[in-house]
C-alpha cells in the first residue's frame, strides 16, 4: 500500500493525479469546515448574486452559496463513483471469472448477457434503470454499477482465460484443487492488478456518468447538490452568474484529471502489459 | 585474411529510471572475409547487445562507446541513421532468433525479401524485385517460390519462415551476416536443415558469418572461431577445435562440462554454482571469480580484471591462471561416478492403453500404449506438436482421453468425477516446462509448496515439517520460504516446482521439458538434482525433453514419438546406439555433434517438417519424410513390435531390415514414395 | 468467411432477442405506463380503463411481447401510442441526424487523434510529446457536455459566431447547415480524439519496439518508410477497434451533447420515450442500438483482416 | 417568406387538440377553431358559432354556426362536425382532457347543417369554458386527425416530426381572413437553457412559458419584446389529509403559515407574480377578498404546530417533479428550508413526470405535493367540478365535505350570477379553513419574441394565437 503510494508519488502523472485527488477528497471530507455556508442555506435577498467577497462564486436562484454547494457536491460524486464501481466490480468480476473459468455454456450465456448490457449506450441504460428504481443516490449508483459491470466481466474473463493457460493452474488442478479454489485462490489474486486499474479508471467513468445523469435530472434528490445538476441549473443563469457554469465543471474536471492520472500511473505499475491497450 | 568488420573496446550501457546499467564492457572482435565466428555465452551475457550496438541498431536509451567500429574500411563510429541505412542490408545484414517476430505479419514475404534491394536501389523495377524474391526463396530451398512470394508470414511454417528470413538477409548480397540464435526456436530436425543451409550458403557466397548461440553443439557443428562472452566481456577467443580440447578459461571449461552429451552416457554433470552477474560492472575483478573452480578465492581474481592474453595460436583468454586451467584435462573436474542404477520393479504405476486424444480435427494422440514402472525413468522425445504434453495431461487425468484407458496404480480414471477424480490425480504430479508460469506469482514459496498438502487436508504441523523436508531435498535454503517466485532465478523456481510435485509422494512424476527454458549451467543443476531424487524416492518418472543429450543422461528407457504415436521405445542405450525407426535415426542425426571432430557430411538429415496433426498421412505417418518408404508404408500402419533382439520395440515395417535402414545414411534423401 | 459472418449474426440475433425480452420486462417494471401519460392530468377511471384496453396493455405480458415480437420479425416495430406514428418512421426521422453527428465527430476525432498521436510517437520523450500527453490527459478528463457548454458560452453567447444548437437542414440552410454541426461534432469528438491520440502513440511505440522493425532497419529501411510501410498497418488494429467502438457509442446517441445542443438525435428520442413509457419506441430504439453495436463489432473484426492477413486467415479459415 | 419559429421544451407528440398538454398550446388555436372564445374580459366571442342562446331553463344551448367555413382538406364545416367532436371527446378511449367536464352534455341535436343544440341535465353556466377548449377537428376525415391536424384554423399542417419540428403553413382560405405569416415552425428544444440560447442567437423567434429569471435578460435587450399573459395556471401545495399527522387540521394550518408566498412569487415570476390564497384570481366570480388572507408567519406556524398535539420534529415527504415543471421543485426547496425552522423535516422526492402523475393522481402516494392546476382564471365551475385537486369526490387530497360538494354543485348549475357567487363563497371558506390544498401563486405566461414579431395574442388559457401575427423582414 505505502509502496503503491510511493510509486505514484514518483510517477510524473501520478503525482499530479494524487495531488488533485487528495485535494478533492479532502474537500469532500472537510466540506463542513471548508464551505463558508451550508449547502442548503437559503439567503433570502441574496439570490442570484454574482461574484462577491461574501460569495466568491455567487449564489443561485434560492440564494444558496455556489462555492459551498460545489464543495458539498464533491461528496455525492465521489461516493457515488466509488460505490458504483465497487458494486459493478464485484458483480462483473464474479461473472467474468466464472465465465472464463468454466467456459462452455456458462461462458457463452454470461457473455451474451454482458454483451446485451454493453449494447446499450450507458447513459440510456442509466436513464432506464433510474426510471425503474426512481431517482436517488443509491439508485443512480446501482444504475452505474450495472452499466459498468460488463467492463469488469470482460476483463476478468479475459484474465481468467489467459491465466487458465498458464501452467500453475494446471498444477493446482493436478493437486486436486477444486474450481472454486482455483478461481478464488489463484485467478482472482492474479487478476487483482488489472482489475484495480480498471476500477480506478471506472471511478472516473462512473463520476462522469453520475454527473451526466444528474445533468439530465436523473441524479440525486434536491436539495442535495451534485455537479451535474448544478451545471444544468447554471445554464439558466448564465446572464446573472456566468461563473456558475464554470465552477462545478472545473471541480468535476479536477476530480477526473486526478482519477485518470492515478489510474494511468497504476496501470504502469500493476498492469504494464495492457499499456498499449489504453483505448479500451 | 583482411578484417572485414572490426570492433574495438565496445562499451554499451543503458539509461533507465533506476540509473545506468553497463551491459557490454570492452568487447573487441574482428571478422575476416568468409570467416565464421561463433559468439557463445549464457543468457544476458551481452551477445545480442554487442552485435546490435556494432550495427547501429540499438535505440536511444543505449549509450555506446567504442574505440573503433570499422566496416570494410569505413569508420562507423557516431554514424547517423542515414549513414547506417546505407550500409545495413547492403554490406551487412542480420538474422534474428525468432522467425515469427522478425517478419512483418502484414507484409507479403516477397516484398520483405526484396526490400533491401528496393531501399538501396529504388529504381529497381517491380518485376526484378519479384524475380529476386523468387530466386532467394529457391536458394533457401523453399518449394514453389512463385506461389510463396505472395504469401504472408503466417502461411509459412517456423522452419520456412527462418529460411525466408535468411533469404531476406542475403537478398542484397551482403558481405557479412550476423545470425542471432537463428535456430533456437526450431525443432532439431529443422534446426539441422537450417544450420546446413547457412553453412552451404556462406561457403558458396564466401560470406563472413557471425553466429550467436548458447548451444555449444552448434558451435562444434559450424564455426571456425569462437568468442566466449561472460557478463558483457569476452573471456575467451579461440579456434573451434581448441575450445573443446583445451579450453583456457574456467568458464569455457565449466560450460563444456555442464553439458550432457548425446554420444555417451557420462557421470554427474558439472553444474556451475551460483548465477551470472546482473550487469557487467556488478562484480569486481574477474566477473567469473565467484563461480570459478580455479579461483579458490585468490585475491587477484577479486581485484584485478584479467586482460585477454594469447595462450596458444589464435587462442586468447582472460584469466589470471590460464596455465593452471590448461594443465587440467577436460572432464577432470567432473565427479565421474553416476548415481547407481536403481532397482526397477515390475510394479506398473502408470498404464496407458490405446489412448487417443483429439481436439476437434487435431489428432494429438493416435493410440498410445505405455507403462511406467516404479523406480524407472522413461524419457520421451519427439518434435514439437507430436503430442508429448498432451500425453502428460491425459496421464494426469487433466484431460479425458477420447479413447482408451488410463490407470494410475490400480485406479481407472475413466468414470471418476469430482472429488474422486481429484483424489486419484494426486498420485501423478507434473513439473512444467516454464518455471515462471507454473508458479502462482502471487503466492509465497511456502504456500506454493504447501498447497497440495493443504488441499489434501493435511495437519498444519505436518505441512510445515514436510515443507522444510522438501526444501532441503531440492536444495533450497529456508530463506526462500517467504520469497515470491519473482525473487528467484529460473533454476530455483524449477526446484520449487519439483518440490511441489513431490509433496504428496506421488507414484508418478512427469517432467515436461523441465530444463528447456534454462541455461546449460542451470540445466545441469536440475539434471543432477533429478539424479539425486531418483535415488531417494521410488516413484516412476517420465521425462519429456527435446534435448537428446539430457534425455540420454537421465533415462532408463526412452520412447520416441511422432505425430501422436510412439514409434520406438526401449532401453536408452540400445535406442541411442541402434535406432531402428528412421525417425529416431533422423532425430539422433539431427542433433548437433558433441565435438567438431565428429562433424560429418553423411548425417541423415530429414527434409521438411512434421505434417499437420489435423491431417495425418495414411499408413505410417512418417512415410512422407522417409527416404526408404514403400507402398506398404502408405497402406498399413506399422505396429509397435518387439525387435528380433534386445529389449526394444519399433513401429516400422523395416525395423529389422538393417540393409534397408543402412540406406538412410547415403541413400537418396527425397522420399521414395511421394506424399 | 460467410459462415463466420453468419455465426456472428446469429449471435447478434440472440443478443437482440435477450435485450428485447429484458427491455420489455424492464419497461413493464417501470411504474406507470403510457396510459398515465395519455390520460392527462385529470383522468377518470373509465378513461384509464378504456386507454389501457385500446393499447392492449390489459393483456398478459407474454401475449403483449409475442405480438410485438411477431410484428418485429416481419419488420413492423409497432406504433407509438404517444405520437401515433410507426416506430420505424420515428427512428428513421432521427437516424440521419445521429449519423451526421456521429460521422462528423468520428472523422474529426480520427484526423486529430491520428495526427497528434503520430507526432507524439515520433517525437517520443521530447517536450512535444510531453505537452501532447499532458493535454491529452486533460482533455480526457473534461466531460464532453461541459465542453459543449463552454463552447456555447464562448462561441455563441460571447462571440455570436455559431448557432447555439438546433439544426436547419441542408435543404433549408444549404451549406450554412454545417454551422450547426460544428460545435456539437467537436464537443462530441474531444475525448475520442484524445483517446485515439494516446492509443496511436502507444501502439506506434509498441510496434516500433518489435523485432521486425529492427530487422527492417537492419535492411536499411529509413524512418519514413518504416512508419508508413511497416508499422502503420500493424499499429492500426487497436486504433481501429477503438474507433469502431467509439463510433458505435456515438451512433448510440450522445444524449448529453444532444441535449446541450438541441440536436434531434436518437439518444433524445429514447430518453423521451423512456420518460413517457413509450415501450415500443424504446424497444425499437434499443433494437437499433444492439444492431449497430453488433454490426460495428463485426465490421471491426472483419476489417482486422484487411490490416492483418493472419486474422484474415483465421476468420476465413472457418469457412 | 415569413415563418415564425416558436420554441418549446415540451415534445409535441400528436396534433390531437384534446390532449391539452403544454406542448399543444401553440397549435390548438392555430390548426383548429373552437365554437367560441373568451375575450380578455372573459366574455365569450363568436368563432365557429356566430350566435347562441340558452333555453329558458338553462338546460339547452342552441348555437348557430358560421357559414362558408371549410376544413383544411376543403370539406365544408357543418353541425355534424360538432356532434362528431362531442362524441369523440366523450369516448374515454380517446383520452380527451375535457372529457369529464364534457360529460355534462347529455345529448347533441343537429336540426340542420348550421344549427346545433347541446342539452344538459342541469343549467350549465360554465359551458363556454368547455366550448373554448372543444376544438373542432375533422374527426371523421380519412387518416388520423391527430397526425394530419385537419381543422379549420388559420394555419394548416405542412409537416410534423414529433420531437423535432412541426411546420404549419398559412391557410389562404381562412374564413376570418388569411393570416399574414407564411408559416409557423414549432421547434422542440430539449431544455429551457437551449431554448433561451436559441432565442438569443436568433434561431427561434418566440418562447413562452418562461421563468422570470429567464425573462429578465431579454427585458434589458432592445432586440426582444417581452410580456405576460394570463395562463389560468396556479401553483398549489396539495396535502394528503388521509392519514396522521396531516389529517390534523392544525398541522396543515401550520404548513400554510410557513409558506413564504411572496418570496415564491418573487423568485419565480418577479413583478408578474401574484400570490394566491384561494384557488381563483381576483377577476373570478368565486373570488372573495375577505378570504384572501393567508400569511407567512413562522412564529405563529410554530405555535400552531406545537399546539397540534403531534410529536416533533415531523418527517414528511414532498412529491415534486422537475420534469413536469422546474418550479415544482424550486417551491419544494423553498418550503423545505422554511418548514425545517418550525420542526418539520421535509424529504423531497423528485420523480419523473409519469411517476409523478401516477403517485399524485392514481395512488395518492405522497404527504405533500408541489402541483399546479389549470383553469384558475376562468369560470370556477370547471375548476371545482373536474380538477383532481378540487373536485368534491375523489380529489387527491382526500377531503370530502357535504357542504362543499353542495356549494360546488350549486355554483355550477345556476344561471344566476349572484346565486353562484354566494354558493362559491361557501366553497372558498371551506377550502381556506380546512387547508387541504394551499394555493400559492398564479402562473403568468411570460413570453419573449424577437423585436420583429408583432401581433401575437393569447387566449384566456394563455394559448398563443398567431392569426394576426406578423414578422418584419
Ligand atoms: N534496451 C535495453 N534496455 C536495458 N537493458 C537492456 C536492453 N537490451 C538488453 N538489455 C540488457 O542487457 C543485458 C544483455 O542482453 P543481451 O540481449 O545482449 O543478452 P544475450 O546475451 O543476447 O542473451 P540471450 O541469450 O538471452 O539472448 C541483459 O541483462 C539485458 O537485460
Ligand atoms: N487444448 C488444445 N486444443 C487444441 N489443440 C491442442 C490443444 N492442446 C494441444 N493441441 C494440439 O495437439 C497437438 C499436440 O500438442 P502437444 O502440446 O501435446 O505437443 P508437444 O509434443 O508437447 O509439443 P511441444 O514440444 O511444442 O511442447 C498440437 O498440434 C497442438 O496444437
Ligand atoms: Mg540475445
Ligand atoms: Mg509440450
From TrEMBL, chain A:
Keywords: Cell membrane, Membrane, Peptide transport, Protein transport, Transmembrane, Transmembrane helix, Transport. It is a multi-pass membrane protein. This is ABC transmembrane type-1 domain-containing protein. The chain crosses the membrane at residues 16-35, 76-99, 119-147, 195-220, 240-263. GO terms for biological process: peptide transport; protein transport; transmembrane transport. It is found in: Cell membrane. Residues 74-263 form the ABC transmembrane type-1 domain. Gene3D superfamilies: MetI-like. GO terms for cellular component: plasma membrane. It comes from the Bacteria. Coiled coil: none annotated. It comes from Pacificitalea manganoxidans. Belongs to the binding-protein-dependent transport system permease family.
Automatic annotation (TrEMBL), chain B:
GO terms for molecular function: ATP binding; ATP hydrolysis activity. Keywords: ATP-binding, Cell membrane, Membrane, Nucleotide-binding, Transport. It is a peripheral membrane protein. It is found in: Cell inner membrane. The keyword Membrane applies. GO terms for cellular component: plasma membrane. Its main location: membrane. The keyword S-adenosyl-L-methionine does not apply. Residues 5-256, 350-588 form the ABC transporter domain. It comes from the Bacteria. GO terms for biological process: peptide transport; transmembrane transport. Belongs to the ABC transporter superfamily. This is ABC transporter domain-containing protein. It comes from Pacificitalea manganoxidans.
UniProtKB/TrEMBL annotation, chain C:
SUPFAM superfamilies: MetI-like. It is found in: Cell membrane. Its main location: membrane. Keywords: Cell membrane, Membrane, Transmembrane, Transmembrane helix, Transport. It is a multi-pass membrane protein. Pfam families: BPD_transp_1, BPD_transp_1_N. The chain crosses the membrane at residues 12-30, 95-122, 134-157, 177-200, 235-261, 281-300. One of its GO terms (biological process) is transmembrane transport. Belongs to the binding-protein-dependent transport system permease family. This is ABC transmembrane type-1 domain-containing protein.
Amino acid at each position: 500500500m505505502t509502496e503503491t503510494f510511493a510509486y505514484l508519488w514518483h510517477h510524473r502523472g501520478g503525482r499530479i493525479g494524487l495531488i488533485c485527488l487528495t485535494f478533492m477528497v479532502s474537500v469532500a471530507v472537510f466540506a463542513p469546515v471548508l464551505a463558508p455556508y451550508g449547502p442548503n442555506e437559503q439567503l433570502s435577498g441574496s439570490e442570484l448574486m454574482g461574484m462577491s467577497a461574501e460569495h466568491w462564486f455567487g449564489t443561485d436562484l434560492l440564494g444558496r452559496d455556489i462555492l459551498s454547494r460545489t464543495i458539498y457536491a464533491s461528496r455525492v460524486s465521489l461516493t457515488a463513483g466509488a460505490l458504483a464501481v465497487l458494486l459493478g466490480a464485484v458483480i462483473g468480476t464474479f461473472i467474468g471469472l466464472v465465465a472464463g473459468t468454466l467456459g462452455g455454456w456458462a461462458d457463452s450465456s454470461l457473455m451474451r448477457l454482458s454483451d446485451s448490457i454493453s449494447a446499450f449506450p450507458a447513459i440510456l441504460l442509466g436513464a432506464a434503470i433510474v426510471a425503474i428504481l426512481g431517482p436517488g443516490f443509491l439508485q443512480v449508483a446501482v444504475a452505474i454499477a450495472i452499466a459498468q459491470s460488463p467492463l469488469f466481466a470482460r476483463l476478468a474473463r479475459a484474465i481468467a482465460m489467459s491465466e487458465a493457460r498458464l501452467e500453475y493452474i494446471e498444477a493446482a488442478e493436478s493437486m486436486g484443487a477444486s474450481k472454486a479454489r482455483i478461481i478464488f485462490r489463484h485467478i482472482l489474486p492474479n487478476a487483482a492488478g488489472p482489475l484495480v486499474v480498471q476500477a480506478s479508471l471506472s471511478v472516473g467513468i462512473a463520476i462522469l456518468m453520475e454527473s451526466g445523469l444528474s445533468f439530465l435530472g436523473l441524479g440525486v434528490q434536491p436539495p442535495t447538490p451534485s455537479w451535474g445538476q448544478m451545471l444544468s441549473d447554471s445554464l439558466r443563469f448564465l446572464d446573472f452568474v456566468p461563473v456558475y457554469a464554470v465552477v462545478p465543471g472545473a471541480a468535476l474536471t479536477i476530480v477526473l484529471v486526478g482519477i485518470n492520472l492515478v489510474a494511468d500511473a497504476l496501470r504502469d505499475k500493476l498492469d504494464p502489459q495492457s499499456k498499449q491497450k489504453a483505448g479500451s | 585474411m583482411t578484417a572485414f568488420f572490426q570492433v574495438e573496446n565496445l562499451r554499451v550501457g543503458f539509461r533507465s529510471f533506476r540509473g545506468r546499467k553497463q551491459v557490454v564492457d570492452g568487447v573487441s572482435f574482428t571478422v575476416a572475409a568468409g570467416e565464421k565466428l561463433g559468439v557463445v555465452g549464457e543468457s544476458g551475457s551481452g551477445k545480442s547487445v554487442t552485435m546490435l550496438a556494432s550495427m547501429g541498431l540499438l535505440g536511444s536509451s543505449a549509450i555506446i562507446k567504442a574505440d573503433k567500429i570499422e566496416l570494410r574500411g569505413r569508420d562507423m563510429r557516431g554514424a547517423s541513421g542515414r549513414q547506417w541505412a546505407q550500409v545495413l542490408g547492403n554490406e551487412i545484414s542480420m538474422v534474428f532468433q525468432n522467425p515469427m517476430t522478425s517478419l512483418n505479419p502484414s507484409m507479403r514475404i516477397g516484398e520483405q525479401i526484396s526490400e533491401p534491394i528496393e531501399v538501396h536501389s529504388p529504381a529497381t523495377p517491380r518485376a526484378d524485385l519479384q524475380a529476386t524474391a523468387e530466386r532467394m526463396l529457391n536458394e533457401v530451398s523453399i518449394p514453389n517460390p512463385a506461389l510463396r512470394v505472395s504469401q504472408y508470414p503466417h502461411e509459412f511454417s517456423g522452419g520456412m519462415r527462418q529460411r525466408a528470413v535468411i533469404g531476406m538477409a542475403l537478398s542484397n548480397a551482403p558481405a557479412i551476416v550476423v545470425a542471432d540464435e537463428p535456430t533456437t526456436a526450431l525443432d532439431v530436425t529443422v534446426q539441422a536443415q537450417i544450420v546446413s543451409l547457412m553453412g552451404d550458403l556462406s561457403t558458396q557466397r564466401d560470406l563472413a558469418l557471425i553466429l550467436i548461440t548458447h548451444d555449444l553443439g552448434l558451435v562444434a557443428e559450424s564455426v571456425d572461431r569462437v568468442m566466449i562472452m561472460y557478463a558483457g566481456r569476452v573471456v575467451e577467443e579461440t579456434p573451434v577445435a581448441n575450445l573443446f580440447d583445451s579450453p583456457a578459461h574456467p568458464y569455457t571449461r565449466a560450460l563444456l562440462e555442464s553439458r550432457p552429451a548425446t554420444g555417451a552416457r557420462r557421470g554427474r554433470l558439472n553444474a556451475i554454482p551460483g548465477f551470472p552477474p546482473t550487469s557487467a560492472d556488478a562484480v569486481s575483478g574477474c566477473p567469473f571469480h565467484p563461480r570459478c573452480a580455479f579461483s579458490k578465492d585468490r585475491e587477484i581474481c577479486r581485484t584485478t580484471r584479467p586482460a585477454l592474453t594469447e595462450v596458444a595460436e589464435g587462442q586468447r583468454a582472460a584469466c589470471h591462471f590460464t596455465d593452471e586451467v590448461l594443465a587440467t584435462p577436460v572432464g577432470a573436474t567432473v565427479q565421474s561416478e553416476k548415481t547407481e542404477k536403481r532397482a526397477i520393479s515390475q510394479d506398473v504405476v502408470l498404464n496407458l492403453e490405446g489412448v487417443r486424444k483429439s481436439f476437434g480435427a487435431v489428432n494429438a494422440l493416435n493410440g498410445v500404449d505405455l507403462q511406467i514402472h516404479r523406480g524407472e525413468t522413461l524419457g520421451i522425445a519427439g518434435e514439437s506438436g507430436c503430442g508429448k504434453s498432451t500425453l502428460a495431461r491425459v496421464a494426469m487425468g487433466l484431460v479425458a482421453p477420447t479413447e482408451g484407458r488410463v490407470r494410475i496404480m490400480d485406479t481407472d480414471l475413466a468414470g471418476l468425477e469430482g472429488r474422486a477424480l481429484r483424489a486419484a490425480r494426486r498420485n501423478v504430479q507434473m513439473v512444467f516446462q516454464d518455471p515462471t508460469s507454473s508458479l502462482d506469482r502471487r503466492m509465497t514459496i511456502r504456500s506454493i509448496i504447501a498447497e497440495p498438502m493443504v488441499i489434501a487436508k493435511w495437519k498444519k504441523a505436518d505441512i510445515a515439517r514436510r515443507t522444510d523436508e522438501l526444501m532441503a531435498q531440492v536444495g533450497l535454503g529456508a530463506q526462500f520460504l517467504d520469497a515470491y517466485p519473482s525473487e528467484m532465478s529460473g533454476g530455483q523456481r524449477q526446484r520449487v516446482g519439483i518440490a511441489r510435485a513431490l509433496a504428496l509422494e506421488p507414484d508418478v512424476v512427469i517432467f515436461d521439458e523441465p530444463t528447456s527454458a534454462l541455461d546449460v549451467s542451470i540445466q545441469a543443476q536440475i539434471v543432477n538434482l533429478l539424479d539425486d531424487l531418483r535415488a531417494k524416492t521410488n516413484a516412476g518418472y517420465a521425462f519429456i525433453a527435446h534435448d537428446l543429450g539430457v534425455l540420454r543422461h537421465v533415462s532408463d528407457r526412452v520412447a520416441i514419438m511422432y505425430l501422436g504415436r510412439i514409434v520406438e521405445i526401449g532401453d536408452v542405450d540400445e535406442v541411442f546406439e541402434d535406432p531402428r525407426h528412421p525417425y529416431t535415426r533422423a532425430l539422433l542425426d539431427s542433433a548437433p555433434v558433441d565435438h567438431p571432430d565428429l562433424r560429418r557430411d553423411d548425417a541423415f538429415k530429414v527434409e521438411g517438417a512434421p505434417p499437420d496433426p489435423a491431417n495425418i498421412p495414411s499408413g505410417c505417418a512418417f512415410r512422407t519424410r522417409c527416404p526408404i518408404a514403400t507402398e506398404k508404408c502408405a497402406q498399413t500402419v506399422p505396429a509397435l513390435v518387439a525387435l528380433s533382439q534386445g529389449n526394444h520395440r519399433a513401429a516400422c515395417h523395416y525395423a529389422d531390415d538393417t540393409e534397408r535402414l543402412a540406406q538412410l545414411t547415403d541413400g537418396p534423401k527425397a522420399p521414395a514414395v511421394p506424399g | 468467411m460467410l459462415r463466420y459472418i453468419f455465426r456472428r449474426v446469429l449471435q447478434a440475433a440472440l443478443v437482440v432477442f435477450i435485450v428485447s425480452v429484458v427491455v420489455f420486462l424492464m419497461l413493464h417494471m417501470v411504474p406507470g405506463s403510457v396510459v398515465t401519460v395519455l390520460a392527462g392530468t385529470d383522468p377518470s377511471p373509465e378513461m384509464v380503463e378504456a386507454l389501457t384496453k385500446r393499447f392492449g396493455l390489459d393483456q398478459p405480458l407474454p401475449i403483449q411481447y409475442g405480438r410485438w415480437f411477431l410484428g418485429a420479425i416481419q419488420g413492423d416495430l409497432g406504433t407509438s401510442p404517444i405520437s401515433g406514428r410507426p416506430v420505424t418512421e420515428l427512428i428513421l426521422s432521427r437516424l440521419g441526424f445521429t449519423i451526421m453527428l456521429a460521422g462528423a465527430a468520428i472523422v474529426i476525432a480520427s484526423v486529430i487523434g491520428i495526427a497528434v498521436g503520430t507526432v507524439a510517437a515520433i517525437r517520443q520523450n521530447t517536450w512535444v510529446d510531453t505537452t501532447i500527453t499532458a493535454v491529452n490527459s486533460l482533455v480526457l478528463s473534461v466531460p464532453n457536455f461541459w465542453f459543449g457548454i463552454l463552447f456555447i458560452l464562448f462561441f455563441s453567447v460571447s462571440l455570436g459566431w455559431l448557432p447555439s444548437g438546433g439544426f436547419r437542414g441542408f435543404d433549408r440552410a444549404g451549406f450554412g447547415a454545417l454551422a450547426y454541426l460544428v460545435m456539437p461534432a467537436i464537443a462530441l469528438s474531444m475525448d475520442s480524439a484524445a483517446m485515439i491520440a494516446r492509443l496511436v502513440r502507444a501502439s506506434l511505440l509498441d510496434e516500433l519496439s518489435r523485432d521486425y522493425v529492427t530487422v527492417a532497419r537492419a535492411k536499411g529501411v529509413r524512418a519514413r518508410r518504416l512508419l508508413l510501410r511497416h508499422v502503420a498497418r500493424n499499429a492500426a488494429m487497436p486504433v481501429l477497434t477503438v474507433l469502431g467502438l467509439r463510433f458505435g457509442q456515438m451512433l448510440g446517441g450522445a444524449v448529453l451533447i444532444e441535449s446541450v445542443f438541441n440536436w434531434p438525435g436518437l439518444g433524445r428520442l429514447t430518453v423521451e420515450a423512456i420518460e413517457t413509457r413509450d415501450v415500443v419506441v424504446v424497444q425499437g430504439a434499443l433494437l437499433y442500438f444492439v444492431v449497430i453495436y453488433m454490426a460495428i463489432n463485426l465490421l471491426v473484426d472483419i476489417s482486422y483482416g484487411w490490416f492483418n492477413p493472419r486474422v484474415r486467415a483465421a476468420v476465413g479459415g472457418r469457412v | 417568406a415569413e415563418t415564425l419559429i416558436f420554441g418549446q421544451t415540451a415534445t409535441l407528440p400528436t396534433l390531437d387538440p384534446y390532449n391539452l398538454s403544454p406542448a399543444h398550446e401553440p397549435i390548438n388555436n392555430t390548426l383548429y377553431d373552437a365554437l367560441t372564445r373568451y375575450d380578455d374580459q372573459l366574455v365569450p366571442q363568436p368563432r365557429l358559432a356566430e350566435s347562441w342562446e340558452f333555453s329558458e331553463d338553462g338546460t339547452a344551448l342552441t348555437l348557430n354556426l358560421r357559414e362558408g367555413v371549410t376544413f383544411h382538406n376543403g370539406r365544408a364545416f357543418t353541425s355534424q362536425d360538432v356532434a362528431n367532436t362531442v362524441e369523440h371527446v366523450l369516448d374515454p378511449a380517446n383520452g380527451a382532457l375535457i372529457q369529464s367536464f364534457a360529460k355534462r352534455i347529455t345529448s347533441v341535436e343537429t336540426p340542420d347543417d348550421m344549427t346545433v343544440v347541446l342539452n344538459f341535465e342541469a343549467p350549465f353556466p360554465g359551458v363556454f369554458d368547455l366550448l373554448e377548449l372543444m376544438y373542432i377537428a375533422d374527426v371523421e376525415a380519412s387518416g388520423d386527425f391527430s397526425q394530419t391536424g385537419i381543422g379549420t384554423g388559420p394555419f394548416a399542417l405542412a409537416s410534423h416530426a414529433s420531437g423535432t419540428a412541426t411546420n404549419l403553413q398559412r391557410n389562404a382560405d381562412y374564413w376570418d381572413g388569411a393570416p399574414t405569416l407564411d408559416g409557423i415552425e414549432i421547434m422542440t428544444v430539449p431544455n429551457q437553457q437551449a431554448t433561451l440560447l436559441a432565442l438569443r442567437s436568433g434561431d427561434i423567434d418566440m418562447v413562452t412559458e418562461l421563468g422570470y429569471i429567464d425573462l429578465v435578460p431579454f427585458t434589458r435587450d432592445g432586440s426582444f419584446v417581452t410580456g405576460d399573459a394570463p395562463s389560468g395556471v396556479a401553483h398549489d401545495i396539495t396535502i394528503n389529509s388521509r392519514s396522521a399527522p396531516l389529517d390534523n387540521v392544525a398541522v396543515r394550518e401550520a404548513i400554510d403559515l410557513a409558506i413564504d408566498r411572496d418570496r415564491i412569487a418573487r423568485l419565480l415570476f418577479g413583478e408578474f407574480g401574484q400570490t394566491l390564497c384561494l384557488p381563483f384570481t381576483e377577476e373570478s366570480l368565486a373570488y372573495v377578498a375577505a378570504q384572501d388572507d393567508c400569511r407567512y408567519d413562522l412564529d405563529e406556524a410554530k405555535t400552531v404546530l406545537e399546539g397540534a398535539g403531534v410529536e416533533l420534529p415531523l418527517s414528511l415527504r414532498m412529491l415534486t417533479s422537475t420534469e413536469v415543471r422546474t418550479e415544482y421543485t424550486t417551491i419544494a426547496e423553498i418550503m423545505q428550508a422554511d418548514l425545517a425552522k418550525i420542526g418539520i423535516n421535509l424529504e423531497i422526492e423528485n420523480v419523473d413526470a409519469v411517476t409523478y402523475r401516477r403517485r399524485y393522481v392514481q395512488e395518492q402516494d405522497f404527504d405533500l405535493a408541489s402541483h399546479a392546476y389549470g383553469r384558475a382564471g376562468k369560470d370556477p365551475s370547471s375548476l371545482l367540478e373536474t380538477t383532481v385537486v378540487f373536485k368534491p369526490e375523489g380529489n387527491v387530497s382526500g377531503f370530502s365535505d357535504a357542504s362543499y360538494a353542495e356549494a360546488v354543485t350549486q355554483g355550477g348549475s345556476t344561471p344566476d350570477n349572484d346565486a353562484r357567487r354566494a354558493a362559491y363563497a361557501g366553497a372558498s371558506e371551506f377550502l381556506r379553513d380546512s387547508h387541504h390544498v394551499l394555493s400559492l401563486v398564479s402562473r403568468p405566461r411570460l413570453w419573449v419574441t424577437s423585436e420583429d414579431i408583432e401581433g401575437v395574442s393569447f387566449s384566456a388559457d394563455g394559448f398563443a394565437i398567431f392569426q394576426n401575427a406578423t414578422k418584419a423582414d
